[in-house]
Design brief:
- With 467 residues, the protein is α/β, with parallel strands linked by helices.
- It has 3 domains: 204 residues, FAD/NAD(P)-binding domain, CATH 3.50.50.60; 105 residues, FAD/NAD(P)-binding domain (3-Layer(bba) Sandwich), CATH 3.50.50.60; 104 residues, FAD/NAD-linked reductase, C-terminal dimerisation domain (Enolase-like, domain 1, 2-Layer Sandwich), CATH 3.30.390.30.
- Strands 3-2-1-7-18 form a 5-stranded parallel beta sheet, with helices on one face.
- Strand 1, helix 1 and strand 2 form a beta-alpha-beta unit.
- The longest helix is centred in the N-terminal third of the chain and has 25 residues.
C-alpha cells in the first residue's frame, strides 16, 4: 500500500484507535477523530473503571477470609469509596495517556471534534470552538460505538436515576439500590454495590439473571448473589415509577412495590448512528438502526467501513479491536474476515465468568444432543490451597466429532482461563485432545482438563461415576 493512502477513522474507542495504529503500522497516513476521551466508553466509563472498582471488592472479600487462612489483620475491612474512585481515575488517566502516546509514536493525527460524512471520501470535523475542517480520505472507518438509551420510564438525572457512567463515580453509597436489568452490567454492579453495603435489588424481565449465559452459570451466580444478600425479581419488569424528593417507588408488572434510594438503568445500548451524515452518503442501517456491513466490515458504500458496537455484532471491546484490524487489512488489499464462532468473553461478577462458543441450551436448540463434561473447583488442589473453592468448568462437545462447541467457567481467573478453550476451538482441537494435554499442577486450568475428561466419564478427581 502506498504511503499516500489516507484512512480517516471516526471514533477512538477500542475499535477506532486499534484500527488507527494497525493502519499506521501498514504504512498508511491516518487521521482519527474523537469528540470525547481516547479509549471510548470501554476505557473511560466501562470495562476498565468497573474492573478497577470490582478488584477492590474482591480484595476486601479475600481479606475477610484472612483469619481462616492464618493471616491476622488489625480491625475489620472497610471500603473507602473516595479512594477507590480516585485510584480508578488514575488508572483510566494513565491508560488514556498511553493511547495518546501510541498514536503519536505511530504518526497518527488526532483531531478533537465530531466527524460527519460529507461524501464517501470526505469527513467534516466539527470542533468544540465552532470551527470545522474537511478531511479527504481514500477510505473511512466509522467506529462511533454505542451509548446509554434514553427511556421515558427512567429519565436519567444522574442522582436518583443513573446509568453505569454515574454508578462508577460512587458519589454516594445508597442504602437501597435497585438495578433494572440483570444482564452482564447489572450483575457486575450488583456485586460492586452489595460489596459496598447497599441493599441491592435486581429486576430482570427474562426468567433468570444473565439470560444469555449457560443455565448452570446463571444458577451459580444467582446463588452467589443471594449470599451477598442481593434480592432479585425475574420474569417481570417495571410497570411504574413514582418519585418523591427523597425516595422512589417502583411498581413491577407482577404487582410488587419496591422502595429505593437510587435506580441504575442497565437495559442495553443504542447505536451511535445519528448525526454522522449517513443519510447523505447513503449508508444503510439495519432493523435496529445499526450500520450494516459485509464480512469485510465494508458498508454498502464503497470505501466506507464500520466496526465495533455500531455494527451490532458481538458488542465487546475486543471484538471491536479485532474488527478494526480486519477492516484495515481489507482496505489495504489483504482479504480477511472474523470468526464470530470463537469469541471469548469475561463477566466480572464475583465470582467471575469466562465463556466461549455455544451454551448447552443453544446446542440443543440446533437439534444436537451434546456431550457435556463438568468439573467443580472444589475438586482442585489449587482452589483449596488459596481458600476459594467456588466455581466449575464445563465443556460442551459434538456427540460425533468430539469438536468443542463451547466452554464455560465460573470461579477464580475464569475470564483468563477461558482462552485455553478458545485457542482449542480456533485450532479445531477436540475435547479429547484438550483432556490429553498435560496441565500444570496445582493450577485452576486443571478444571478444564478434568471437565474435558468428564465427557468420557474419566475425570480423575470427580468423586462420582458418570451416569
Amino acid at each position: 500500500m502506498p504511503l499516500s493512502k489516507h484512512i480517516v477513522i471516526v471514533g477512538a474507542g477500542p475499535g477506532g484507535y486499534v484500527a488507527a495504529i494497525r493502519a499506521a503500522q501498514l504504512g498508511a497516513q491516518v487521521t482519527i477523530i474523537e469528540n470525547q476521551a481516547l479509549g471510548g466508553v470501554c476505557l473511560n466509563w466501562g470495562c476498565i473503571p468497573s474492573k478497577a472498582l470490582l478488584s477492590v471488592i474482591d480484595l476486601g472479600e479475600k481479606l475477610n477470609k484472612a483469619e481462616d487462612l492464618g493471616l491476622s489483620l488489625a480491625g475489620p475491612t472497610a471500603f473507602n469509596p473516595l479512594q477507590m474512585v480516585a485510584r480508578k481515575n488514575r488508572v483510566v488517566t494513565g491508560l488514556v495517556k498511553g493511547i495518546a502516546t501510541l498514536l503519536k509514536v505511530w504518526g497518527v493525527t488526532h483531531l478533537e471534534g465530531t466527524g460527519v460524512l460529507q461524501n464517501e471520501q470526505t469527513v467534516n470535523v466539527q470542533k468544540a470552538d465552532g470551527t470545522s475542517e474537511s478531511i479527504q480520505a481514500d477510505a473511512i472507518i466509522l467506529a462511533t460505538g454505542s451509548s446509554w438509551p434514553n427511556l421515558p420510564l427512567f429519565p436519567v438525572d444522574g442522582t436518583m436515576v443513573i446509568t453505569s457512567k454515574e454508578a462508577l463515580e460512587i458519589n454516594r453509597v445508597p442504602e437501597r439500590f435497585l438495578i433494572v436489568g440483570g444482564g452482564v452490567e447489572g450483575c457486575e454492579f450488583a456485586s460492586l454495590y452489595a460489596g459496598l453495603g447497599s441493599k441491592v435489588t435486581i429486576v430482570e424481565m427474562m426468567p433468570r439473571l444473565l439470560p444469555l449465559e449457560d443455565e448452570e452459570v446463571s444458577a451459580l451466580i444467582e446463588r452467589e448473589l443471594k449470599k451477598r444478600k442481593v434480592q432479585f425479581y425475574t420474569g417481570t419488569k417495571v410497570d411504574k415509577v413514582t418519585r418523591s424528593d427523597t425516595t422512589t417507588t417502583v411498581t413491577l408488572e407482577n404487582g410488587t412495590s419496591l422502595e429505593t434510594d437510587m435506580i441504575l438503568v442497565s437495559v442495553g445500548r443504542r447505536f451511535n448512528t445519528t448525526g454522522l451524515g449517513l443519510e447523505k452518503v447513503g449508508v444503510m442501517l439495519g432493523e435496529r438502526s445499526e450500520i450494516t456491513v459485509n464480512d469485510r466490515l465494508e458498508t454498502n458504500v464503497s470505501g466506507v467501513y464500520a466496526i465495533g458496537d455500531v455494527v451490532g455484532k458481538a458488542m465487546l471491546a475486543h471484538v471491536a479491536s479485532a474488527q478494526g484490524k480486519v477492516a484495515v487489512e481489507n482496505i489495504v488489499g489483504h482479504e480477511q474476515t472474523i470468526n464470530y464462532n470463537v469469541i471469548p468473553a469475561g463477566i466480572f461478577t464475583l465470582p467471575e465468568i469466562g465463556r466461549v462458543g455455544l451454551t448447552e441450551q443453544e446446542v440443543r436448540e440446533q437439534g444436537i444432543e451434546p456431550k457435556v463434561g463438568r468439573f467443580r473447583y472444589v475438586g482442585l488442589g489449587k482452589s483449596h490451597a488459596v481458600g476459594d473453592t467456588v466455581g466449575f468448568a464445563k465443556v460442551v462437545a459434538h456427540p460425533e466429532t468430539d469438536a468443542i462447541l463451547g466452554a464455560h467457567l465460573v470461579g477464580a481467573h475464569a475470564a483468563d482461563l477461558i482462552h485455553e478453550a478458545a485457542m482449542a476451538m480456533q485450532m479445531n482441537a477436540t475435547a479429547t485432545q484438550m483432556a490429553e494435554m498435560i496441565h500444570a499442577h496445582p493450577t485452576h486450568a486443571e478444571a478444564l482438563m478434568e471437565a474435558a475428561e468428564d465427557i468420557q466419564g474419566l475425570a480423575i478427581h470427580q468423586a462420582r461415576k458418570r451416569l
